[in-house]
Specification:
With about 200 residues, the chain is of the alpha+beta class. The protein contains two helices and 13 strands, in the order E-E-H-E-E-E-H-E-E-E-E-E-E-E-E. Bound molecules: succinic acid and manganese (II) ion (MN).
């Protein structure tokens, strides 16, 4: 497995092989049934282009009331548990003494993106955030810990895992675009990104 350090972002290229990727998609199927993807709205009222849901004790949500973690899906149901196989990836790559209590699931369909942002709704930034890419390639942009300045981009492919910790924990990041249909992992195309966070 190749490893690339880009501005403190620890990128494990090809961490998950093809069968591990398929296995994760199988594990996500019942989760997406229990906690369906929905299109979130930012506090300013703008619809995001990605669709979103979560697993874990807490899920990250956004709506007119703001960005936050909460213990239920917008439909009122508790979030499904994070599968042990996903927790094992966290354990292997972070060695942290705490398990994540949120696995945010973002689905990128054709033409979707995610603007540059910081992950800063968590209680303690000393825990890393771990991001798993599945499906279509994504152009991932990395900025600075303050808005503006030079950025660098890298294409992430299915099976790549990024660890955002230490000085990179509060760096701006986002997805400019995906190469829709570049992977056959998801039957209808698109990309799933899982981010594991210690939220509380
Ligand atoms: C995120 O920052 O929440 C998602 C990053 C990605 O999709 O790779
Ligand atoms: Mn993020």
């Amino acid at each position: 497995m190749a490893r690339l350090l880009l501005r403190g972002f620890d990128i494990r290229i090809g961490y998950l092989d093809a069968s591990a990727q398929t296995g994760l998609i199988e594990l996500l199927r019942p989760i997406l049934k229990a906690a369906p993807l929905y299109r979130p709205v930012t506090p300013s009222g703008k619809e995001m282009s990605v669709r979103m849901t979560s697993a874990g004790a807490l899920g990250w949500v956004t709506d007119r009331a703001g960005y936050r973690y909460q213990d239920t899906h917008p439909d009122g149901a508790a979030w499904p548990a994070i599968p042990d196989e996903i927790l094992a990836i966290w354990q292997d790559l972070t060695g942290a003494d705490r398990q994540p209590d949120c696995c945010l699931i973002n689905y990128y369909g054709e033409g979707t993106k995610m603007g540059l942002h910081q992950d800063k709704d968590e209680a303690d930034f000393s825990w890393p955030v771990l991001s798993i890419s599945l499906g279509d390639d994504a152009l991932f942009r990395i900025g600075n810990t303050t808005r503006g300045g030079k950025t660098e981009s890298i294409w992430l492919s299915s099976g790549d895992v990024v660890i955002m910790g230490g000085p990179a924990r509060l760096a701006y990041h986002g997805v400019d675009r995906i190469r829709f249909g570049s992977s056959r992992l998801l039957p209808k195309g698109g990309r799933i990104n899982l981010t594991l966070r210690v939220a509380s």
